[in-house]
Protein backbone atom coordinates (compact mmCIF):
# COMPACT_ATOMS: atom_id res chain seq x y z
CA UNK A 1 0.00 0.00 0.00
CA UNK A 2 1.22 3.52 -0.79
CA UNK A 3 1.85 5.99 2.02
CA UNK A 4 1.58 9.76 2.46
CA UNK A 5 5.29 10.14 1.64
CA UNK A 6 4.84 8.06 -1.52
CA UNK A 7 2.29 10.63 -2.71
CA UNK A 8 4.74 13.47 -2.03
CA UNK A 9 7.37 11.54 -3.99
CA UNK A 10 4.92 10.98 -6.86
CA UNK A 11 4.48 14.75 -7.11
CA UNK A 12 8.25 15.27 -7.16
CA UNK A 13 8.60 12.71 -9.93
CA UNK A 14 5.60 14.13 -11.81
CA UNK A 15 3.72 10.85 -11.63
CA UNK A 16 -0.01 11.46 -11.62
CA UNK A 17 -1.97 10.32 -8.57
CA UNK A 18 -5.22 8.61 -9.51
CA UNK A 19 -8.03 8.70 -6.99
CA UNK A 20 -11.57 7.36 -7.30
CA UNK A 21 -14.42 7.31 -4.84
CA UNK A 22 -15.88 4.01 -3.66
CA UNK A 23 -18.56 3.40 -1.08
CA UNK A 24 -18.89 -0.33 -0.59
CA UNK A 25 -17.21 -3.73 -0.95
CA UNK A 26 -17.61 -4.28 -4.73
CA UNK A 27 -16.77 -0.74 -5.83
CA UNK A 28 -13.65 -0.62 -3.65
CA UNK A 29 -12.60 -4.05 -4.87
CA UNK A 30 -13.00 -2.93 -8.49
CA UNK A 31 -11.01 0.25 -7.83
CA UNK A 32 -8.20 -1.76 -6.26
CA UNK A 33 -8.22 -4.25 -9.15
CA UNK A 34 -7.97 -1.34 -11.59
CA UNK A 35 -4.90 -0.12 -9.67
CA UNK A 36 -6.04 3.31 -8.46
CA UNK A 37 -3.53 4.96 -6.09
CA UNK A 38 -6.06 6.15 -3.54
CA UNK A 39 -9.70 5.48 -2.76
CA UNK A 40 -11.96 8.17 -1.32
CA UNK A 41 -15.03 7.22 0.64
CA UNK A 42 -16.56 10.59 -0.16
CA UNK A 43 -19.58 12.08 1.53
CA UNK A 44 -20.84 12.27 -2.05
CA UNK A 45 -22.28 8.92 -1.00
CA UNK A 46 -25.14 11.05 0.33
CA UNK A 47 -26.00 11.90 -3.28
CA UNK A 48 -25.03 8.87 -5.31
CA UNK A 49 -25.79 6.07 -2.85
CA UNK A 50 -28.34 7.42 -0.38
CA UNK A 51 -30.29 9.68 -2.75
CA UNK A 52 -30.06 12.95 -0.78
CA UNK A 53 -29.79 16.22 -2.70
CA UNK A 54 -26.96 17.41 -0.45
CA UNK A 55 -24.00 16.04 1.47
CA UNK A 56 -25.05 17.86 4.65
CA UNK A 57 -27.37 15.01 5.65
CA UNK A 58 -24.56 12.47 5.78
CA UNK A 59 -23.68 11.35 9.31
CA UNK A 60 -20.61 9.92 11.02
CA UNK A 61 -22.46 6.58 11.18
CA UNK A 62 -23.07 6.67 7.40
CA UNK A 63 -19.37 7.36 6.75
CA UNK A 64 -18.20 4.60 9.09
CA UNK A 65 -20.69 2.07 7.72
CA UNK A 66 -19.58 2.65 4.12
CA UNK A 67 -15.86 3.05 4.84
CA UNK A 68 -15.78 -0.30 6.66
CA UNK A 69 -17.29 -2.02 3.64
CA UNK A 70 -14.92 -0.22 1.24
CA UNK A 71 -11.90 -1.21 3.35
CA UNK A 72 -12.97 -4.86 3.26
CA UNK A 73 -13.00 -4.62 -0.55
CA UNK A 74 -9.66 -2.82 -0.87
CA UNK A 75 -7.49 -3.72 2.09
CA UNK A 76 -4.31 -2.93 0.12
CA UNK A 77 -5.24 0.55 -1.10
CA UNK A 78 -4.75 3.87 0.71
CA UNK A 79 -8.23 4.83 1.87
CA UNK A 80 -9.34 8.39 2.64
CA UNK A 81 -12.64 9.01 4.45
CA UNK A 82 -14.53 12.30 4.32
CA UNK A 83 -15.32 13.89 7.65
CA UNK A 84 -19.03 14.66 7.31
CA UNK A 85 -20.79 18.00 7.75
CA UNK A 86 -20.24 19.59 11.17
CA UNK A 87 -18.01 16.77 12.45
CA UNK A 88 -14.85 18.94 12.42
CA UNK A 89 -16.11 22.40 13.34
CA UNK A 90 -17.44 22.44 16.89
CA UNK A 91 -14.15 22.08 18.74
CA UNK A 92 -10.69 20.56 18.50
CA UNK A 93 -11.85 17.86 20.92
CA UNK A 94 -14.87 16.91 18.80
CA UNK A 95 -12.76 16.93 15.66
CA UNK A 96 -10.17 14.63 17.20
CA UNK A 97 -12.78 12.21 18.54
CA UNK A 98 -14.52 12.06 15.17
CA UNK A 99 -11.25 11.79 13.22
CA UNK A 100 -10.12 8.98 15.50
CA UNK A 101 -13.40 7.08 15.03
CA UNK A 102 -13.16 7.35 11.24
CA UNK A 103 -9.66 5.89 11.29
CA UNK A 104 -9.96 3.33 14.08
CA UNK A 105 -13.37 1.91 13.29
CA UNK A 106 -12.82 1.59 9.54
CA UNK A 107 -9.10 0.96 9.05
CA UNK A 108 -8.85 3.98 6.73
CA UNK A 109 -5.50 5.73 6.28
CA UNK A 110 -6.58 9.39 6.27
CA UNK A 111 -9.48 11.81 6.61
CA UNK A 112 -10.54 14.71 4.37
CA UNK A 113 -11.99 18.03 5.49
CA UNK A 114 -13.44 20.91 3.47
CA UNK A 115 -12.32 24.54 3.66
CA UNK A 116 -9.59 26.49 5.43
CA UNK A 117 -11.15 29.31 7.48
CA UNK A 118 -11.99 27.96 10.93
CA UNK A 119 -10.68 24.52 10.00
CA UNK A 120 -6.88 25.03 9.93
CA UNK A 121 -6.50 24.62 13.70
CA UNK A 122 -8.42 21.39 13.46
CA UNK A 123 -6.26 20.10 10.59
CA UNK A 124 -3.21 20.86 12.72
CA UNK A 125 -4.66 19.05 15.74
CA UNK A 126 -5.57 15.97 13.67
CA UNK A 127 -2.09 15.77 12.16
CA UNK A 128 -0.44 16.28 15.56
CA UNK A 129 -2.55 13.43 16.87
CA UNK A 130 -1.28 11.21 14.06
CA UNK A 131 -4.19 11.36 11.64
CA UNK A 132 -3.16 12.19 8.04
CA UNK A 133 -5.39 14.89 6.53
CA UNK A 134 -6.38 15.74 2.97
CA UNK A 135 -7.65 19.32 2.59
CA UNK A 136 -10.41 20.20 0.10
CA UNK A 137 -10.63 23.69 -1.42
CA UNK A 138 -12.54 25.46 -4.18
CA UNK A 139 -16.08 24.22 -4.51
CA UNK A 140 -16.75 22.69 -1.10
CA UNK A 141 -20.16 21.00 -1.30
CA UNK A 142 -20.79 21.03 2.46
CA UNK A 143 -20.90 24.84 2.34
CA UNK A 144 -22.75 25.18 -0.96
CA UNK A 145 -25.44 27.18 0.84
CA UNK A 146 -22.90 29.85 1.75
CA UNK A 147 -21.18 29.68 -1.66
CA UNK A 148 -24.55 30.23 -3.33
CA UNK A 149 -24.60 27.17 -5.58
CA UNK A 150 -22.41 24.68 -7.39
CA UNK A 151 -20.21 27.20 -9.21
CA UNK A 152 -16.63 27.39 -10.39
CA UNK A 153 -14.54 29.02 -7.63
CA UNK A 154 -11.63 31.46 -7.86
CA UNK A 155 -12.65 33.11 -11.10
CA UNK A 156 -11.87 36.67 -9.97
CA UNK A 157 -8.51 37.96 -8.76
CA UNK A 158 -9.56 38.32 -5.15
CA UNK A 159 -11.00 34.84 -4.73
CA UNK A 160 -8.14 33.32 -6.74
CA UNK A 161 -5.62 34.90 -4.35
CA UNK A 162 -7.63 33.69 -1.39
CA UNK A 163 -7.61 30.11 -2.76
CA UNK A 164 -3.86 30.23 -3.29
CA UNK A 165 -3.34 31.50 0.27
CA UNK A 166 -5.71 28.87 1.66
CA UNK A 167 -3.77 26.12 -0.11
CA UNK A 168 -0.53 27.34 1.47
CA UNK A 169 -2.20 27.57 4.88
CA UNK A 170 -3.50 23.98 4.56
CA UNK A 171 0.01 22.82 3.74
CA UNK A 172 1.39 24.71 6.77
CA UNK A 173 -1.29 23.17 8.96
CA UNK A 174 0.04 19.76 7.98
CA UNK A 175 -2.30 18.46 5.25
CA UNK A 176 -0.46 15.96 3.03
CA UNK A 177 -2.62 16.62 -0.06
CA UNK A 178 -5.25 19.06 -1.28
CA UNK A 179 -8.32 18.30 -3.35
CA UNK A 180 -9.11 21.23 -5.65
CA UNK A 181 -12.68 21.19 -6.89
CA UNK A 182 -14.06 23.30 -9.72
CA UNK A 183 -11.39 25.93 -10.21
CA UNK A 184 -10.03 27.33 -13.49
CA UNK A 185 -7.16 25.18 -14.74
CA UNK A 186 -4.71 28.10 -14.74
CA UNK A 187 -5.35 28.76 -11.06
CA UNK A 188 -5.08 25.03 -10.26
CA UNK A 189 -1.71 25.01 -12.04
CA UNK A 190 -0.52 28.03 -10.07
CA UNK A 191 -1.63 26.48 -6.77
CA UNK A 192 -0.04 23.14 -7.66
CA UNK A 193 3.33 24.76 -8.32
CA UNK A 194 3.09 26.91 -5.17
CA UNK A 195 2.76 24.03 -2.70
CA UNK A 196 4.99 21.01 -2.22
CA UNK A 197 2.15 18.67 -1.26
CA UNK A 198 0.19 17.07 -4.12
CA UNK A 199 -3.00 18.65 -5.44
CA UNK A 200 -5.74 16.32 -6.60
CA UNK A 201 -8.14 17.98 -9.01
CA UNK A 202 -11.78 17.47 -9.85
CA UNK A 203 -12.89 19.97 -12.45
CA UNK A 204 -9.50 21.66 -12.07
CA UNK A 205 -7.76 20.87 -15.36
CA UNK A 206 -4.81 18.70 -16.25
CA UNK A 207 -2.06 20.45 -14.27
CA UNK A 208 -2.93 19.21 -10.79
CA UNK A 209 -0.75 16.43 -9.40
CA UNK A 210 -3.61 13.97 -9.52
CA UNK A 211 -7.26 13.55 -10.41
CA UNK A 212 -10.31 12.33 -8.54
CA UNK A 213 -13.77 11.46 -9.84
CA UNK A 214 -16.91 9.94 -8.39
CA UNK A 215 -17.37 6.21 -9.11
CA UNK A 216 -20.98 6.60 -10.21
CA UNK A 217 -20.07 9.44 -12.60
CA UNK A 218 -17.16 7.55 -14.19
CA UNK A 219 -19.39 4.55 -14.88
CA UNK A 220 -22.72 6.34 -15.47
CA UNK A 221 -24.26 4.26 -12.70
CA UNK A 222 -27.55 5.51 -11.30
CA UNK A 223 -26.81 9.12 -12.21
CA UNK A 224 -28.93 11.03 -14.71
CA UNK A 225 -26.78 14.09 -15.25
CA UNK A 226 -23.05 14.61 -14.90
CA UNK A 227 -21.03 17.84 -14.63
CA UNK A 228 -18.94 19.24 -17.46
CA UNK A 229 -15.77 18.03 -15.76
CA UNK A 230 -16.88 14.39 -15.68
CA UNK A 231 -15.83 12.03 -18.43
CA UNK A 232 -18.03 8.91 -18.44
CA UNK A 233 -15.75 5.95 -19.15
CA UNK A 234 -18.53 3.38 -19.15
CA UNK A 235 -22.32 3.34 -19.27
CA UNK A 236 -23.39 0.55 -16.97
CA UNK A 237 -26.77 2.01 -16.05
CA UNK A 238 -28.22 0.90 -19.37
CA UNK A 239 -26.74 -2.58 -19.04
CA UNK A 240 -28.22 -2.89 -15.56
CA UNK A 241 -31.72 -1.74 -16.55
CA UNK A 242 -31.63 -3.92 -19.69
CA UNK A 243 -30.64 -6.92 -17.59
CA UNK A 244 -33.40 -6.35 -15.05
CA UNK A 245 -35.98 -5.80 -17.81
CA UNK A 246 -35.08 -9.11 -19.45
CA UNK A 247 -35.41 -10.86 -16.08
CA UNK A 248 -38.85 -9.31 -15.56
CA UNK A 249 -40.00 -10.38 -19.04
CA UNK A 250 -38.71 -13.94 -18.69
CA UNK A 251 -40.41 -14.46 -15.34
CA UNK A 252 -43.71 -13.15 -16.68
CA UNK A 253 -43.51 -15.37 -19.80
CA UNK A 254 -42.24 -18.40 -17.83
CA UNK A 255 -39.02 -18.50 -19.84
CA UNK A 256 -37.25 -18.38 -16.49
CA UNK A 257 -36.47 -20.61 -14.68
CA UNK A 258 -35.88 -23.22 -17.39
CA UNK A 259 -34.61 -26.75 -16.65
CA UNK A 260 -31.04 -25.56 -16.69
CA UNK A 261 -31.75 -23.39 -13.67
CA UNK A 262 -34.00 -25.86 -11.79
CA UNK A 263 -33.41 -28.85 -9.53
CA UNK A 264 -35.02 -32.18 -10.40
CA UNK A 265 -35.78 -35.50 -8.72
CA UNK A 266 -35.36 -38.83 -10.49
CA UNK A 267 -38.34 -41.18 -11.06
CA UNK A 268 -37.30 -43.46 -8.16
CA UNK A 269 -37.41 -40.59 -5.70
CA UNK A 270 -40.70 -39.40 -7.07
CA UNK A 271 -42.23 -42.85 -6.65
CA UNK A 272 -41.08 -43.10 -3.04
CA UNK A 273 -42.48 -39.68 -2.31
CA UNK A 274 -45.89 -40.01 -3.99
CA UNK A 275 -46.31 -43.80 -4.35
O1 LIG B 1 -17.30 13.38 -1.65
C1 LIG B 1 -16.60 13.32 -2.69
O2 LIG B 1 -16.79 12.48 -3.58
C2 LIG B 1 -15.50 14.29 -2.81
C3 LIG B 1 -14.78 14.33 -4.11
C4 LIG B 1 -15.65 14.91 -5.16
C5 LIG B 1 -13.49 15.03 -4.01
O3 LIG B 1 -15.26 15.01 -1.89
NA1 LIG C 1 -16.78 15.07 -0.22
From TrEMBL:
Localization recorded for this chain is: Cytoplasm
- Cofactor(s) required, per the database record: Mg(2+)
The cross-references to InterPro entries, in alphabetical order and at most eight, read: Pantoate_hydroxy_MeTrfase, Pyrv/PenolPyrv_kinase-like_dom, Pyrv_kinase-like_dom_sf
Active-site residues, record numbering mapped to chain: 181 (proton acceptor)
Cofactor notes: Binds 1 Mg(2+) ion per subunit.
Q: What is its main location?
A: cytoplasm
Write out the GO biological process terms. Answer: methylation; pantothenate biosynthetic process
Keyword vocabulary terms for this entry: Cytoplasm, Magnesium, Metal-binding, Methyltransferase, Pantothenate biosynthesis, Transferase
User: Where 3-methyl-2-oxobutanoate is bound, by residue?
Assistant: 43-44, 82, 112
What is this enzyme's catalytic activity, as reactions? Answer: (6R)-5,10-methylene-5,6,7,8-tetrahydrofolate + 3-methyl-2-oxobutanoate + H2O = 2-dehydropantoate + (6S)-5,6,7,8-tetrahydrofolate
The positions annotated for binding Mg(2+) are: 43, 82, 114
Pathway(s) = Cofactor biosynthesis; (R)-pantothenate biosynthesis; (R)-pantoate from 3-methyl-2-oxobutanoate: step 1/2
Which Enzyme Commission number(s) are listed?
A: 2.1.2.11
* NCBIfam families tied to this protein: panB, PRK00311.1
Instruction: Quote the subunit structure annotation.
Output: Homodecamer; pentamer of dimers.
Name of the protein this chain belongs to: 3-methyl-2-oxobutanoate hydroxymethyltransferase
What is this organism's lineage? Bacteria, Bacillati, Bacillota, Clostridia, Eubacteriales
Q: What would be the name of the gene that encodes this protein?
A: panB
